[in-house]
């Protein structure tokens, strides 16, 4: 920088966060103009004005940030990535595992998680050296911590209270105890790898960041929330709201899928913790001791290359051939979800029913296949949902099956191996992703990737209440609460010319390919390491 010895540090959005210091900076690039009106942090001195406009390129002054990318990772998540299935070890269900599994195969370290009650867990992930650290839970802990606080309190609360959250004090006590157990196991894993980054995931473990911080002041800690953060009014219902927020603020970085969730979180911090000396400044939360907790928006994704490979794999082609006969001559609509009340499966079925009611010719020329992976069936709402879904399917088939013809609605209640799933994605003319609310939704990214890899012209009908809708505006967006409107959106999607569908698929597939899960991990780990370096520097 000509003519001045000043060094400046910009936040990623271009805000000047500090000045007059030498920094550990690796990827910021900034443009400084004479007299440029840059917001300054209150307690830092104003830098001397710069005479001429300059482009400033910072290069790394410490290797620790870039090293962050190669450092071991101790991931802490409720579930380990594998569980015992009928045919041996298989992947655990859900988007968190889908996203994190490929990552952990490229980073050394450990994965701390609940063993799901299965014994004889393999010591490492099959395709990598990552050590699996199983946490055993008692029957009472499973009931109170997992089914209770995690899935009947936090899950509905964070999903905009779409089902009524239940607040039970014994569940909260159990949540605290189990979080302490996870933190202990994580600390033991970190003791073995002193240079590791601790990376805590999701709503089951929101107290863990602070539990680690209280014992390792200098530990780089990141937290990623895989679900939405609701409006501050809804979060404020939680009787233990301050404790949960304080738990999260043990991290150096708290990350979300969308700007909306991140904004909601920052507003919750300001509202619930403002009186305890906590201040929200831009995108950071400043604690009374001066420590800054950064927040970022980082939409998660899939391993697009791996899914494209599944799509074109000869094994998948054989499966497609085997399945094609079943749906030949019919337009295939597909739904793929965990059987969860957030996914809008009942509204989807209602829309299909309206579609068939309005268009009698579709009763023999259209098939809708719902693949539902069993989920949390010890929670009352999930059992009731299964009953409702199965009753609705029976109702539609009872009403609209034409004698001599196949039923219009098909249903698989099970998990499928990835290549089998890819075969269904390849065959489907349209995928219906209609959650009432969904943090991200990876199923739609998988479908787009498979369709594009096989040169298909499938169409994606996507709820505007998913994190994915922010990234994939080329989809046919829909409001699943309006079931009649949804049925018309499906009709509209099916009528779209093939050329328009291909264009939309190409744009969406390109976004997914260039924003895949590997990029997400690299960015997240670098950001966590950088935030810790920054905190250390300013202490
Ligand atoms: P969530 O995280 O709420 O379960 P996502 O859409 O983000 O929702 O992720 C779901 C993951 O689970 C995807 O990777 C998807 O392929 C997988 N999945 C969903 N249903 C099935 C199924 N029936 N069989 C196998 N995998 C499934
Ligand atoms: C969602 C959650 C994950 C969870 C997954 C499966 O993706 O964000 O944390 O693991 O659902 O749910 P389960 O309760 O079976 O782990």
Describe what this molecule looks like in 3D.
The protein has 2 domains: 259 residues, 3-Layer(aba) Sandwich (Rossmann fold), CATH 3.40.50; 211 residues, 3-Layer(aba) Sandwich (Rossmann fold). Helices cover 42% and strands 18% of the residues. The protein contains 19 helices and 21 strands. It binds adenosine-5'-diphosphate and 6-O-phosphono-alpha-D-glucopyranose (G6P). Adenosine-5'-diphosphate (ADP) binds next to helix 2, strand 16, strand 17 and helix 15.
Compute the average pLDDT. 87
Task: Tell me the name of the CATH class of the largest domain.
Answer: Alpha Beta
In total, the number of domains comes to: 2
Q: Count of DSSP helices?
A: 19
How widely separated are the two ends? 26 Å
Helix share of residues? 40-55%
Round the Cα radius of gyration to an integer and report it. 25 Å
Quick one: how many beta strands? 21
Secondary-structure content class: alpha/beta
| Largest sheet: number of strands, sense, barrel closure | 9 strands, mixed
In the predicted model, the low-confidence regions spanning at least 5 consecutive residues are: 1-67
CATH architecture of the largest domain: 3-Layer(aba) Sandwich
Give the arrangement of secondary structure elements.
Blueprint: E1 8-10, E2 16-19, E3 29-32, E4 54-57, H1 64-67, E5 73-79, E6 82-85, E7 88-91, H2 95-104, E8 109-114, E9 131-135, H3 139-158, H4 169-192, E10 197-201, H5 208-213, E11 221-224, H6 232-235, H7 241-248, E12 253-256, H8 259-273, E13 279-281, E14 284-286, E15 292-297, H9 304-312, H10 314-327, E16 331-338, H11 345-358, H12 362-365, E17 366-373, H13 380-400, E18 409-413, H14 418-427, E19 430-433, H15 443-453, E20 459-463, H16 468-471, E21 476-478, H17 483-495, H18 498-514, H19 517-537
Parallel strand pairs: 5-8, 5-10, 8-9, 10-11, 11-12, 12-15, 16-17, 16-19, 17-18, 19-20, 20-21
Antiparallel strand pairs: 1-2, 3-4, 6-7, 13-14, 14-15
Bound molecules: adenosine-5'-diphosphate and 6-O-phosphono-alpha-D-glucopyranose.
């Amino acid at each position: 920088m000509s003519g001045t010895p000043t060094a400046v540090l910009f936040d990623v959005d271009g805000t000047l966060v500090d000045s007059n210091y030498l920094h550990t900076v690796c990827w910021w690039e900034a443009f400084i103009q004479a007299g440029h009106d840059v917001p300054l942090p209150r307690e830092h001195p104003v830098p001397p004005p710069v005479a001429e406009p300059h482009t400033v390129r910072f290069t790394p002054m410490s290797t620790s940030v870039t090293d962050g990318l190669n450092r071991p990772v101790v991931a802490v998540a409720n579930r380990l990535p594998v569980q015992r299935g009928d045919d041996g070890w298989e992947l655990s269900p859900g988007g968190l595992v889908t996203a994190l599994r490929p990552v952990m195969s490229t980073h050394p370290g450990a994965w701390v998680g609940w063993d799901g009650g299965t014994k004889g867990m393999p010591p490492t992930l099959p395709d990598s050296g990552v050590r699996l650290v199983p946490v055993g839970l008692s029957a009472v802990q499973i009931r109170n911590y997992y089914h209770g606080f995690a899935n009947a309190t936090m899950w509905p609360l964070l999903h905009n209270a779409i089902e009524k959250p239940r607040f039970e004090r014994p569940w909260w006590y159990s949540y605290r105890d189990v979080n302490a157990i996870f933190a202990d196991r994580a600390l033991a894993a970190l003791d073995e790898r002193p240079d590791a980054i601790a990376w805590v995931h999701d709503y089951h473990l929101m107290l863990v960041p602070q539990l680690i911080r209280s014992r390792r002041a200098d530990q780089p800690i990141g937290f990623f929330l895989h679900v939405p953060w609701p409006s501050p009014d809804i979060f404020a219902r939680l009787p233990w709201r301050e404790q949960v927020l304080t738990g999260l603020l043990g991290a150096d970085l708290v990350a979300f899928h969308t700007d909306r969730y991140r904004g909601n979180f920052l507003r919750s911090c300001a509202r619930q913790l403002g009186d305890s000396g906590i201040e929200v400044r831009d995108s950071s939360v400043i604690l009374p001791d001066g420590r800054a907790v950064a927040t970022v928006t980082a939409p998660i994704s899939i391993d697009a290359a791996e899914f494209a490979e599944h799509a074109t794999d000869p094994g998948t082609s054989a499966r497609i051939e085997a399945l094609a006969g079943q749906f030949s001559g019919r337009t295939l609509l597909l739904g793929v979800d965990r059987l969860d009340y957030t996914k809008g499966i009942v509204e989807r079925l209602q829309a299909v029913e309206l579609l068939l009611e309005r268009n009698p010719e579709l009763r023999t020329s259209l098939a809708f296949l719902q693949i539902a992976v069993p989920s949390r069936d010890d929670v009352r709402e999930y059992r009731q949902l299964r009953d409702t879904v199965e009753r609705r399917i029976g109702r539609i088939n009872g009403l609209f099956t034409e004698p001599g013809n196949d039923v219009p609605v098909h249903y698989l209640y099970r998990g499928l191996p990835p290549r089998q799933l890819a075969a269904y994605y390849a065959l489907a003319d349209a995928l219906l992703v209609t959650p009432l609310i969904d943090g991200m939704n990876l199923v739609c990214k998988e479908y787009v990737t498979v369709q594009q890899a096989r040169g298909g012209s499938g169409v994606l009908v996507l709820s505007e209440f998913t994190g994915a809708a922010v990234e994939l505006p080329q989809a046919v967006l829909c409001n699943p609460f309006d079931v009649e409107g949804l049925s018309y959106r499906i009709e509209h999607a099916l009528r779209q010319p093939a050329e328009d569908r291909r264009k939309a698929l190409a744009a969406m597939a390109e976004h997914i390919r260039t924003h895949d899960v590997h990029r997400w991990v690299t960015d997240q780990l670098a950001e966590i390491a950088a935030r810790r370096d920054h905190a250390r520097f300013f202490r």
